[in-house]
Amino acid sequence: MVKSIISIVSIIFFFLSISGYILYIYKKTKIRLEFIPIIIFSSIICIIYLSGLLNIMQYMTYAIFLFGLGLFVFFLIKKQLPTIFNKSNLTIGSIFILLTFCYFAILLWDAKLISYDNFSHWGLVVKHMLVFNSMPNSTSNISYPRYPLGSSVFIYYVCRIIGATEGKMMIAQNILMLACIFPLFGTIKNKKSYYIAIITACASIYMIIENKGLDNLLVDTLLPLVGLAATAIIFYYRNDVRKASILALPVMITTLLIKESGIFFVIINCLFLLYIAFKANKIAINKQEKAINFAYVFGIIFLTFFMLFLWKQHIDYVFQEVVSKNTMGTENFSSVFGSKTSQDIISNFLKNLFNIKNTFTKTVLFYNVSALSALALIIIIKPAYKKNMHGIINAIICADVLFLLYQAGLLGIYLFSFGEAEAIRLAAYDRYSASIIIYNIGILVIGFIHDYERFFDVPTLEISDKRASRIYIIKKAIVSTMMLMSIIAIGSTSITNNYERLYRISNISNFKNTPPEMIEQLVGDNWSGYSNKKYLIYFYDKYGKQSSNYIHHIAYYKIFSPKITVISTIEPESLLKTLSEYDYLIVLKENETLSGFISKYIERPKYFGIYPIHETFFKNN
User: Which residues contact 111 (CB under 8 A, 6 or more apart)?
Assistant: First the structure.
């Protein structure tokens, strides 16, 4: 009870600190409230990232937190809180984000990490940083040391303030995802456009939960959302290239720092910036103004990629002799592409791509049909505007072109980066493909918002003829309802498909008897540093090597000992000799041979348990 109260108070102070920064930026810049949280969070990520390279993460974390808290106190004393916390900013978007956060926080409060990749990398690096207050190094035993740590440093920042549990790690990541969704509502100029706000909220539900990004620390959902946030900011300020460049900078840097494949979304936003710079220069007064516009854009592009360069220099120095899995290289190029299996990879890839039974293929077809239907309806209802339907048309074209380019890049990754076995079975293909779908749905929503507001958000009072006014309202309702039904269909389908998973997260008892819970029950959850004890774990390997690897990663995550071995077969003749090399034996599955061996030393052996080896099997020596 006391811990829960402390956690809640910590969360309140965390948000008061963030509110201090929001108040300061809002007062000084007057930019839309919806864009501020992701700009703040992205800036925090960049600062903590740089401090991590300098090995001062903990000090910088507390400095950022306290400074934000000081700003809040300053505005509180000056009685300037109403400048932002007022009715005009209480929109459907802000209410949706607030209520969704509260729901996610309650849902994930006691949640536990389950999936493989959390223990092999994403959860492990966060725990390492929280334990040692530093980025992983060559002694950290990290499987993917060359992966950037953008999302991880944000989770570190939040958990350093509100407390470190697996549930709070997931809450931190969801805070970041909701901050990425918020800018979509910021592209709605008329705050009373309730239809559009509801449509955006429904699309947001799909984008957050469909790719299973809610209850883990994987970044396949977060990555396109950060890219989308930058796109939304650039789109809204497309008539002010300098402001668009500056505001998008930290968000674009964060996209690259979350995962290197984020370069796809960064390039999109760089091209978008260049496009609006060219448009701005067509009406620029003189050459100096044109040069300044391009200087802003190219400066932003340079700084974005310079941060990635710093990371690469860091890992080349710290992990000089470590080769990370799933990295592009000439060795994979020659061994995979040059072999006969490349044909199998391409064949399997194309079958998946054009398989109508795949959820992501259905979604691509569905959002194309929905967008085209909305376009057709608007043209039928308002024929005069058919030549100016740039928003939806451009969004459809961009979405389809980006989908094909992304798939081509994904095929390249399977050919040149993945190991042969993983490439042939197209490991995590659906999860990776869902990333571009999430981004595309976002840009379709932006395109629809643009055209809807342009052609339908004229105040009814401006229409003098009562009959024309009624017809106008009917037309507006038809288009709004059709698009709303389409988006609700996507959102409700996503909730239906994920209902069982959401129920599992909400019920803590569902984590019992899972491998992470079983191991934690036996050895606890070590948050004090590396253990020098050696562990031998028996687990019946029903599903092959993958299952053994899963147990090994969980055990390392929980115990924090680099000296762990997982076995699935028992050889009685050599078992005693094998045991002599370890400190503890952990039994996770019943085995008659192992039970018979243990019964020689213990009267009533437990099938499931932990045995101190020297006290149990060598006590007479």
Answer: 166, 167, 170, 215, 505, 508, 511
H or E segment to which residue 479 belongs? helix 466-497
pLDDT at res. 556: 92
Report the candidate in 22, 58, 72 with the shortest Cα–Cα distance to residue 164. 58
pLDDT of residue 195: 74
Q: What is the pLDDT of residues 148-160, one digit of tens each?
A: 999 999 999 999 9
- Identify the helix (H) or strand (E) that includes residue 538: strand 535-538
Percent of the chain with pLDDT over 70: 82
Tokens of 123: 């959860």
pLDDT of residue 82: 67
For residue 516 the two structure tokens come to 């992470």
**Helical axes 263-282 vs 390-416, angle rounded to 10°:** 140
**Residue whose structure tokens are 């944000």:** 154
What's the residue count for the chain?
621
Q: Amino acid identity of 144?
A: Y
- Return the closest-CA partner of residue 358 out of 346, 366, 347: 366
Structure token pair of residue 591: 């085995």
- Where is 609: in which H helix or E strand? strand 609-612
**What integer best gives the mean pLDDT of the chain?**
82
Would you report the helix, strand and coil content of the chain in percent, each value rounded to 5? 70, 5, 25
Closest CA to 540 of 479, 606, 607: 607
Q: Residue ranges per domain, the chain? A: 2-325, 329-457, 512-617
Cα distance between residue 334 and residue 382, in whole Å: 57
Token pair of 253, please?
Answer: 């840097």
Residue 411 in tokens = 């095929």
Q: Are 177 and 225 in contact (CB under 8 A)?
A: yes
Please list the alpha-helical segments (H only) found in 319-428. Answer: 330-332, 341-353, 359-381, 390-416, 420-424
C-alpha to C-alpha distance for 58 and 55, rounded to whole angstroms = 8
Rounded CA separation 368/441 (Å): 10
Per-residue confidence (pLDDT) for residue 476, from 0 to 100 = 55
Q: Which residue has the tokens 């050889």?
A: 571
d(CA 479, CA 374): 6
Distance (Å) of CA 378 to CA 392, 472, 555: 10, 12, 58
State which residues of the chain have pLDDT below 70: 1, 82-83, 85, 284, 321-341, 374, 377-379, 381-389, 455-510, 541-546, 603-607, 620-621
- How many helices (DSSP H) and strands (DSSP E) are in the chain? 26, 4
Tokens of 283: 């009406």
pLDDT at 49: 95
